[in-house]
Design a protein that fits this description.
single chain, 457 residues, Rossmann fold, Alpha-Beta Plaits, six-stranded parallel β-sheet, 30% helix, 25% strand
Length: 457
């Protein structure tokens, strides 16, 4: 597939890296020569210096023979105009735009994106994606990662294995026998910074991040089994009153019994949050000041969520909150080097905005019947949901015969709405939806298994 990416920032780089690895023809457009030089040096992609919404620049990028344009510059308006030009002048089949300003996304303006007006096929809002990830974490206390698959029928959970976990040193193949009726398949382990799909004889170790696929209704029991279940947060402190902070606070206001307080250093942002939110207490002050955190009640907070635009503020305010007595902390961090400090600084969960955005876009970019995608640990692995078609190479075969290879672990098979545990003797039939985790090196082969003819695109 031929793809043009407008924007060579963090998201553009992440997308280009993933798509180039999978043998797509990728061209990246950006006004910054340094970013273009870096991305073309590091990756097998072509670079064009110029404005992503200018027709002549897009022609130099090969827009006339492009299957998809993905506009992820820092300016919403550039992204929207680039998609408009790609449609109006060059009839590009698929147009994806990152749109951050929530005003553009209000339901009353949905007609804006019709084919007759501004024909953007897929709109990605990082703020909404990040907000949803945080709310999922709050609704499933005890897991540091919660992602739904199969229209919500199954959940992908990340759980940190502590010393009290009763299944430590137990081979994975024996775990289902210990907890009858519990649908929970371990599809991945993160150990010493590396994510891998485990063999059935691999045991869990203290300090592992274990990744489970479970029936949605079994999530609570699973967390009880591994000893990580916590009570649902009733007192939440949000640091940062920007778009993400307001999105999360507004959603929490709809939940009975939840108290929300927000700290915002910028006076105008604080006033905007106060005008937008009804039950959230807004404090105008510096979250790095222990007196301000005390006033917000951090010492009794079930969770403190740091969502400012500054990684350092998010890290230090989270560390301070933990020291003052907060039970859990969540921090939004952009830089990979900062994310790697998570354990050392005792931050319970890190939100990577680039990973959230890249996962959302890849969901629509994948060839074949890949229905959903979630990225792990800066692309070390992906969790995928794929549909088995009549033309799929493994249709009519057992899982054993399908031989998905090393680096792949199946978590669930969904057939006619019924969630089934994977079994080597199970036959895959057209219409089955398979939820699996694949290491980076195995992704190309997995995509081929679910591939269909290009005419669908």
């Amino acid at each position: 597939m031929r793809v043009i990416i407008c924007g060579a920032g963090r998201v553009g780089y992440g997308l280009a890296s993933r798509l180039a690895i999978e043998n797509n023809t990728v061209t990246v457009v950006d006004t910054n020569p340094d970013l273009i030089r870096n991305i073309t040096t590091d990756l097998d992609v072509r670079g064009v210096i110029g404005h992503g919404s200018h027709p002549d620049v897009l022609v130099r990028a090969g827009i006339e023979n492009t299957d998809m344009i993905i506009a992820v510059t820092y300016a919403d308006e550039v992204n929207m105009v680039a998609c408009q030009i790609a449609h109006s002048l060059f009839d590009v089949p698929t147009k994806v735009a990152r749109v951050r300003a929530q005003s553009y996304l209000m339901a009353r303006y949905n007609d804006l994106y019709s084919r007759e007006n501004m024909p953007i096929d897929i709109i990605i809002s990082p703020e909404v994606e990040i907000g949803k990830a945080i709310l999922r974490r709050l609704s499933t206390p005890g897991a540091f990662n919660v992602v739904p698959f199969g229209d919500g029928a199954v959940q992908f959970l990340g759980v940190r294995i502590g010393e009290d976990c009763p299944i430590i040193e137990t081979p994975i193949r024996q775990i289902p026998d210990l907890f009858t009726g519990l649908h929970a398949a371990i599809v991945g382990i993160r150990r010493e910074g590396q994510v891998f799909a485990p063999n059935l004889d691999d045991p869990l170790e203290v300090g592992d991040d274990a990744y489970f696929v479970t029936k949605a209704e079994h999530a609570t029991r699973l967390l009880e089994v591994v000893g990580t279940r916590e009570t649902r947060a009733r007192h939440v402190v949000i640091i940062g009153g920007g778009s993400i902070g307001r999105y999360v606070a507004e959603a929490l206001e709809d939940q009975s019994g939840v108290r929300v307080r927000m700290i915002e250093a910028d006076k105008e942002q604080a006033e905007l949050a106060a005008a937008t939110l009804t039950r959230t207490v807004i404090l105008h002050g510096d979250a790095m000041d222990s007196a301000v955190q005390d006033e917000a009640g951090v010492n009794t907070a079930d969770v403190v969520i740091a969502l400012t635009n500054d990684d350092k503020i998010n890290i230090l305010s989270s560390v301070l909150a933990k020291r003052l007595g907060a039970s859990n902390t969540i921090a939004l961090l952009n830089e990979r080097s900062m994310q790697e400090l998570q354990r050392d600084l005792n931050i319970d969960m890190v939100i990577d905005p680039r990973a959230s955005t890249v996962s959302s876009i890849l969901r629509h970019v994948r060839r074949g019947r890949i229905l959903d995608v979630y990225t792990l640990s800066q692309g070390q692995a992906e969790v995928l949901e794929g549909e088995v078609l009549e033309t799929s190479t493994f249709a009519g075969k057992t899982l054993r015969e399908a031989a998905l290879g090393d680096g792949v672990a199946i978590g669930a098979i969904i057939r006619d709405g019924t969630v089934m545990m994977p079994d080597q003797s199970q036959i895959l039939t057209p219409g089955d939806r398979v939820v699996l985790m694949a290491e980076k090196d195995a992704l190309k082969d997995i995509e081929k298994l679910f591939r269909v003819g290009v005419e669908l695109y």
